[in-house]
Amino acid sequence: MIAASAAEPQPRWQALWREAITDAGELLQLLDLAHLAPHLPQADAGFPLRVPRGFVARMRRGDARDPLLLQVLPQLAECADPAAARDAVGDAAARAAPGVIHKYRGRALLIASGACAVHCRYCFRRHFPYADETAAAGRWQAALAWLRAHPEIDELILSGGDPLSLATAKLAELDEALRDFPQLRRLRIHTRLPVVLPERVDAELCRWLSGLPWPVALVLHANHPRELDDSVAAACARLRHAGVRLLNQAVLLKGVNDDAGTLAALGARLFDLGVLPYYLHQLDRVRGTLHFEVDDDTALALHAELRRRLPGYLVPRLVREEAGAPAKTPLVPA
Ligand SMILES: *Cc1c(COP(=O)(O)O)cnc(C)c1O
Ligand code: SF4
Fold first, then answer.
1. Atom 3 in ligand 2: which residue has the minimum CA distance?
2. Which of 61, 114, 139, 294 is the most exposed place for a label (fewest CB within 10 A)?
């Protein structure tokens, strides 16, 4: 085998990752919204703006209420709820080992990486102390040692951050080690990268996925049908060709997707791409995100309307995550 030379070009997705927009002024300029700049917060509350250029290209120019823009643009309202929790979902208490979160029977979640290509303003992990906590640190030893002591775990979930932010070689290092665990029946990957940076789904990644010895479920994260342009459709087709089953989780977000027409269009578009809607999450109430919250009565009414409009298999489960609960909690009408 020929050793990789230092001069070997980096995969294109890594260059696109680095070229992401991180400056609000530049983002607004690109969208013909420069007049909004004085109304933005001065500080970023430790969670800077970040969005790949390809995702920005799907935003409507001149539209300050664009549902894709609202997901990434820091707002003054983020400073309005200083009393809200930093860890609303009990992740700290469920930390089983460095980079391992164990809440539910049979499934363990690995914080594979702390990095994301996009910074979603509503993210419940925006305060998570990633630097100390990624499972990929070292050669995944802490996570592997924990798994060895827990033979009842039959599904590993790679999450983050975004696990596909790791180089494919780093992912391959994990799967080589995991082949020694006969208990594993499924591998799951929670990622927003095929949506926000579809170039990440390159030939190298697809080769890795199709060579895995376990059935793989990949849970995407798209909140609005306009996120799913032709480049995302092509990435989904490559993933399906690699034998991966595709699901989607969305977060119910005020001003972004809190109307039945948008959610129904999202379900229909997902199915066109070979993706089934899985969860529609009520917002996790962490600091800096409450301006996105949709109240439960409205959420239930939206969900009831979706059940009227869509075939049952395109209706996502409306859930919230409750610290200490044995599974995601379905919302049920009072
Ligand atoms: C959401 C979550 C899971 C996955 O739950 P499913 O209902 O199986 O999708 C697993 N572990 C943790 C810690 C979670 O937060
Ligand atoms: S991609 Fe996922 S983990 Fe990363 S900021 Fe967005 S919601 Fe949070």
1. 161
2. 61
Check: CB of residue 194 under 8 Å from CB of residue 205: no
* Ligand 2 within 6 A of CB of 116: yes
Average pLDDT of the chain, as a whole number: 93
As a dihedral over the C-alpha atoms of residue 316, residue 318, residue 323, residue 324, rounded to 10 degrees, the angle is: -80
Residue 42 inside a domain? The answer is no
Q: Please give the DSSP secondary-structure letter assigned to residue 251.
A: E
CA angle 218, 241, 248 (to 5 degrees): 25
As a whole number of angstroms, the distance between CA 140 and CA 98 comes to: 9
Residue 155 three-state SS:
strand
Span from the CA of 222 to the centroid of ligand 1 (angstroms): 17
* Structural domain boundaries enclosing 157: 95-330
Ligand 1, residue 278: give the atom nearest the CA: 9
pLDDT (tens digit, 9 = 90+) per residue, 240-298?
A: 999 999 999 999 999 999 999 999 999 999 999 999 999 999 999 888 899 999 999 99
Question: Which residue do the tokens 């009990």 mark?
Answer: 90
In a domain, 216, yes or no: yes
Quote the ligand 2 centre to 116 CA distance (angstroms): 6
Number of domains the chain contains: 1
Handedness of CA 9, 116, 59, 252 (dihedral sign): positive
Q: What is the CATH number of the domain that holds 127?
A: 3.20.20.70
In a domain, 12, yes or no: no
Query: Could you report the per-residue pLDDT of 190-235, keeping only the tens digit for each?
Result: 999 999 999 999 999 999 999 999 999 999 999 999 999 999 999 9
Atom of ligand 2 nearest to the CA of 161: 3
Q: What is this structure's pTM?
A: 0.95
Contact call for residues 184 and 178 (beta carbons, < 8 A): yes
Residue whose CA is at the smallest distance from ligand 1 atom 15: 103
Residue 157 near ligand 1, beta carbon < 6 Å: yes
- Least distant ligand from the CA of 114: 2
Q: What is the mean pLDDT of residues 20-33?
A: 97
Q: Is the residue at 7 inside a domain?
A: no
